[in-house]
Amino acid sequence: MTGERVSIKMRASRWEDGGERHISGAERIVSRERAEEVCARLLERALHHARGEADSVHLKIERVRPGEITVVDALPVTTVETGSAAEGRERLCGLMARAGITRPAEVLARMADTWDMRGAMLLHADTLERLEPEPGRGVRATYMDALEDAAGGVCKDHFREALVLASKVAHHPNLVGEVCVSDDPEYVTGYFACRELGYVRITRLKERGCPDGGRIFLFRGSRAEAEGCIRYLEEQKVLVRLRGGAGHG
Ligand code: WAQ
Ligand code: MG
After folding, report:
1. 3-class secondary structure, 213
2. 187 CB less than 6 Å from ligand 1?
3. Per-residue pLDDT tens for 170-208?
4. Ligand 1: which of 158, 168, 181, 248 to mutate, most ligand atoms within 8 Å of CB?
5. Which of 16, 66, 109, 180 is packed most tightly, with the most Cβ within 10 A?
6. Exposed e or buried b for every residue in 87-97, given b needs 16+ CB within 10 A?
7. 159 CB under 6 A from ligand 1?
8. Which ligand is nearest to the CA of 74?
9. Which residue out of 82, 118, 181 has the highest number of ligand 1 atoms within 8 Å of its CB and is therefore the one to mutate?
10. Among residues 33, 23, 149, 177, which one has the least CA distance to residue 93?
11. What is 191-243 written as a DSSP string?
């Protein structure tokens, strides 16, 4: 069903204040025939990013065998229209509460610490303890794509990529929610996602021009389960079935 595919990972960074600063990253799993074209597109994206010019771009291409891939369904999508960032954050807290997160405002406050992270913060949903092995980097969900091997242009399709990521994340039994705000200054739509509520877009979660953003994965379970969960996020190859229902328009 999935045929011969390759995983392609891109990350772009810049040297700033003596350190490496993350600009953008992407992960794809595409058919072998499309590998070169997708690499060219990701390179193009890396070199022309709203967050600035890259000093270094990494592209990693690996063969993926069909037997290694898990296929999961995309989360159902709904939208909450909000007029201001403050209203968006309030609605976000309400969604977290409905999903059984007991301290939503505190979770949201942690977003301030995701600045500059390449991955997501992994937070215990009840104790709010951080569970990432490398807090400065966070945990990056990788090896995922839509099952439908779509063409797509050079421009990033924020929604499609986020739905793929959120569907992979929500599929893990110990992950009970995800909060996301884009770090792209012009992209103000964010979301909350979990198995029970699906992927809930919030049309305004930050003000235009603001470069802050990040992700928080909410975890419930034991230490040992946290290790398994990180392995799943970083290593399990997942294709997300969009069922033709997702995508713009
Ligand atoms: N795994 C974990 N965390 C990640 C990953 C990943 N693969 N990719 C990005 N992040 C973290 C990282 O800290 C970024 O700074 C932050 O998330 C935001 O990433 O329905 O564009 O790629 O229209 O800027 C939401 C779409 C778009 C809402 C989100 O995120 C909609 C977006 P960005
Ligand atoms: Mg971004």
Report:
1. coil
2. yes
3. 999 999 999 999 998 999 999 999 999 999 999 999 999
4. 158
5. 180
6. bbbebbbebbe
7. yes
8. 1
9. 118
10. 177
11. EEEETTTEEEEES-SS-TT----EEEEEE-S-HHHHHHHHHHHHH-EEEEE-T
What does the block give as tokens for 88? 């968006």
Residue with CA closest to ligand 1 atom 21: 182
Q: Helix, strand or coil for residue 169?
A: helix
CA-CA-CA-CA torsion sign (173, 22, 185, 45): negative
Q: For residue 144, is pLDDT > 80?
A: yes
Taking phi over 0 as left and psi of -120 to 50 as alpha, with beta for the rest, 198 belongs to: left
The pTM of this model reads 0.94
Q: What is the DSSP letter of 149?
A: -
Nearest protein Cα to ligand 1, atom 19: 182
> Across all residues in the chain, what is the average pLDDT?
93
Of all atoms in ligand 1, which is nearest to the CA of residue 139?
Answer: 2
Tokens representing 147 are: 């099952």
R_g over Cα of the chain: 17
> Which structure tokens are listed for 55?
């000093």
180 lines ligand 1 (CB under 6 A): yes
Indicate which residue's Cα is closest to atom 30 of ligand 1. Answer: 182
Exposure of 172 in the CB half-sphere (CA atoms within 13 A): 29
> Does 64 or 150 have the greater pLDDT score?
64
Q: Name the residue with tokens 């592209």.
A: 59
